[in-house]
Amino acid sequence: MKRIKVLVTGVGAIIGYGIINSLKKIPNLELHIVGVDVFPDAVGRHWCDTFVQGVYAQSEQFSDFIISIVKQHKIDLIIPGIEQDVDALAKLVEIGKLPKELVAINSKCGLATFQNKLNTSNVQVELNIPYIQFADASLSNKKEVIDKCGLPCIYKPYSAYAGKGLAILHTESEVEKKCELKEGIFQRYIRSDKEYTVSVFGLDDGGFINPIAFERRLGPDGATHKAKVIDFALFELVVKLLCQKTKPKGPTNFQFISDDSSDDILLLEVNPRVSSSTSIRQKFGINEAEMCLEFYLFNEIPKQQFVKYGSAERFIDEVIVYDSDNI
């Protein structure tokens, strides 16, 4: 079998080098990993076979840069490691600059629904799924927001990730200022120390395979720092309803929170991409990078994988490169 060349973007961040780690755990497959990051000293460069300094996804040069990398290195599959690259690569696929089978991204419906917090909330209402009370900043005034969500409440931009732009609002004046932006949603503030991250691999037809669920604690960077594998059955009905409606494709991550006031488990948001827990999932038997190769590159339904139960803790480590006179 010829060597498979995989391009991974954002290799300096936890998702990017988590994807690399998962690729390297695939048995009986000869891979050449090309890593890209905008920073020349990105830590993931140490684990790639080839590293190329990239350009920002929002830049005018991104399209030409990606296309040149694909041609130069004869790339077989692109797996994006950061949210901005998902957006930019989806646009390149949409306008025909990249073939859709080359890029491991979600379905059009999955992206349109889950990359927008308002759309995610609205689809829960449509499906009669228990949801966190919310108000649309573009249509609501201060009184309407407080009547629906109370104080304190949460404000989120329509499109954000890893907690970016999120604010806890305690006063009417804070709510009023966010209403003036006419962009984003307000949600009831839920007091809880229990969050869950549930991942499935969508099959683009409303079905999914290889679910895995963690109870988790977040770190200050918005990524999972501690995780315990729990039973997926707790979330199965909600995930099934959402998948049947939106037909996600590839790695799709559902985040839930336990409402201490009612004992309900409510959906916080959905990330239609590989998430920061991908390397933890691989260690518990669910390798998302392997499924990406099977589904997008080989055009096969990913094989059944088997979940191991246990817990995980993340810690800080180092990559050391000695000067030549110390070797």
UniProtKB/TrEMBL annotation:
Signal peptide: none
InterPro entries named among the record's database cross-references: ATP-grasp, ATP_grasp_subdomain_1, CPAse_ATP-bd
Keyword 4Fe-4S: no
Molecular function GO terms recorded: ATP binding; catalytic activity; metal ion binding
Tree of life domain: Bacteria
Domain ATP-grasp: 121-297
Alphabetically ordered keywords of this record: ATP-binding, Nucleotide-binding
Name by which UniProt lists this protein: ATP-grasp domain-containing protein
Originating organism: Aliivibrio sifiae
Lineage of the organism: Bacteria, Pseudomonadati, Pseudomonadota, Gammaproteobacteria, Vibrionales
